[in-house]
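ok trying this again, last paste got cut off
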Amino acid sequence: MDGDNGSPQAKTTKETGAAPDEASVFDNSPEKEQRAELAATIATLKRDLEAQTKARDALLAKCNLTMEQARLLTDEHIDRLHRYNDIKDAGQLLFGKLAELKGKTVKDIYKEYSVNIED
């Protein structure tokens, strides 16, 4: 029992690299607490990732798609949204120019052409 006073917490200088009093100070250090918090956060993130992966896989199975097919479908959808936004921007620009030429507001031009201002 070299350096052991019978308690399970007592450690020898050889085991800890420090005297027992110093070792207990390091057990409660902010760095150790921070490491424990980070480890807990990592564990939570891993569980969340696993749950998200299972949910994704269930959706892929339900739609009978592979991951690659889903990516291609998503990319195609994003491309279509970009084209839609470009066309919408061009239309808004034309309505703005037309309003300027007619001396009206853009809102009036939208009404004149039966276009919903929210679109």
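PB: full thing came through this time. The chain has a mean pLDDT of 85.
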